[in-house]
Design a protein that fits this description.
single chain, mainly beta, two-stranded antiparallel ribbon, about 0% helix, binds zinc ion
């Protein structure tokens, strides 16, 4: 059996996914008052994300009554199954 070789990179690829839900939780402090906030990517989502590029996730500060955003980067790898 020959080895499986996978080459290439997904960086810069825009995923044709309107709503990409992911099993991650993000926690961040409000940049104004420092109150902790969070986003659950099981219910919040990335819309048509580009692999390797900054994406914004909105969070809401209950103390300031304002939204703020944090930047995340979506990585994507493809591996041969063991
Ligand atoms: Zn705040």
């Amino acid at each position: 059996m020959s080895a499986i070789k996978i080459s290439g990179s997904a960086k810069g690829t825009q995923l044709d996914v309107k709503r990409l839900y992911l099993p991650f939780k993000i926690e961040a402090d409000c940049p104004v008052c420092g109150t902790g906030s969070g986003a659950d990517m099981n219910t919040d989502y990335l819309s048509y994300p580009t692999v390797g590029s900054e994406e914004s996730v909105s969070m809401f500060c209950v103390k300031c009554d304002e939204f703020f955003s944090v930047k995340v980067v979506l990585g994507l790898t493809l591996e041969a199954a063991p």
